[in-house]
């Protein structure tokens, strides 16, 4: 419908999550009509990030440095290691603002059906980190899904063999949530994990 | 929170319409974690489009060619000229699929308060096009807003001086719309523009 360059731009914009044909068209026309400077800046930012961003040597989160800012921060408690599935989870926990330890990012969860095994999640690297000593507690913060639970279980078994204490973050009714609207699985878990007051 | 390159990418993504901080974060992490190829393709598409896409010499729509595919198409009726505000409007009319004439894109509407006058809308170019002869009808398809109406009025006055017939697309209750949900302004217009059957 449009010229080849514009069609290609619309098609390339669909690589963005949540962007369908209509949004891609709106984005392409907006950038070309009203914000070419923003478009150039985005092109450069994308190219530099794809080129430069790799993984932190210690925790595997996304960074262009050898060590990410959290691993490199001397004031963080290096003896606490929180295992999460994605860099977005790191951000969510950081935004909560109370955790002062470090992280280990799996970039996924065990999923034999998709051919994702321990090596793909850097579990050998995690093993070396725990075997090297200095970690006093591993906090498992994988998602409370079947795969997340299986991954947490697998890691806890390996950590126990190394005599590193392991904990799992609490699951239950979220603060501010109304019981009426909480799913049955969460409620059942909240009951079975109840704590004496 | 993240490293500088990732922060810059998130910030650059906010140039896209409808993308706030949370979506920008999701997009950046998605591209870096799962679709670096798509990110590179998008970077190239953006850079090439910003570099290459200009305006059609005749109708001012976005294209990297001298004449856009519609103006260059010999089978389109060059004697019909539909004036619209944006390239997106051209696309909407093309998708309706019945109009066989050509277009003229204003890239906006008259808006003295924002300092947008006739020159910014290429109205001198439109004047030359009409003065050159060969246009049998100008169809005004600017938006039915105050500025769109003012722009349509201004263009119709100039076209009449050149003895070019001018028409305005019909406004009223959209097909498939239910009267109950149509705004009062549209209904009032539909009544005042009623046609004998």
TrEMBL record, chains A, B:
SMART domains: TOPRIM. CDD domains: TOPRIM_recR. It comes from the Bacteria. One of its GO terms (biological process) is DNA repair. Keywords: DNA damage, DNA recombination, DNA repair, Metal-binding, Zinc, Zinc-finger. A zinc finger (C4-type) spans 56-71. The keyword Lipid biosynthesis does not apply. It holds the Pfam family RecR_ZnF. GO terms for molecular function: DNA binding; zinc ion binding. Residues 79-174 form the Toprim domain. Belongs to the RecR family. May play a role in DNA repair. It seems to be involved in an RecBC-independent recombinational process of DNA repair. It may act with RecF and RecO. HAMAP family: RecR (MF_00017). This is Recombination protein RecR. It comes from Simiduia agarivorans (strain DSM 21679 / JCM 13881 / BCRC 17597 / SA1). The gene is recR.
């Amino acid at each position: 419908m449009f010229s080849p360059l514009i069609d290609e731009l619309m098609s390339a914009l669909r690589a963005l999550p949540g962007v369908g044909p209509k949004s891609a068209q709106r984005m392409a026309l907006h950038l070309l009509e009203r914000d070419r400077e923003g478009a150039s800046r985005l092109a450069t930012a994308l190219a530099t990030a794809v080129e430069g961003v790799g993984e932190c040597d210690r925790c595997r989160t996304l960074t262009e440095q050898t060590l990410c800012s959290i691993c490199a921060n001397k004031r963080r408690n290096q003896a606490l290691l929180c295992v999460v599935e994605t860099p977005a989870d790191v951000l969510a926990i950081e935004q909560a603002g109370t955790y002062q330890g470090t992280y280990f990012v799996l970039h996924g969860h065990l999923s034999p059906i998709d051919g994702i095994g321990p090596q793909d999640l850097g579990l050998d690297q995690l093993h070396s980190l725990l075997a090297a000593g200095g970690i006093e507690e591993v906090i498992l913060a994988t998602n409370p899904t079947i795969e997340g639970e299986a991954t947490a279980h697998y890691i806890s078994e390996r950590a126990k063999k190394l005599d590193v204490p392991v904990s799992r973050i609490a699951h239950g009714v979220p603060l501010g949530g109304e019981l009426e609207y909480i799913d049955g699985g969460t409620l059942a878990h909240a009951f079975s994990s109840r704590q004496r007051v």
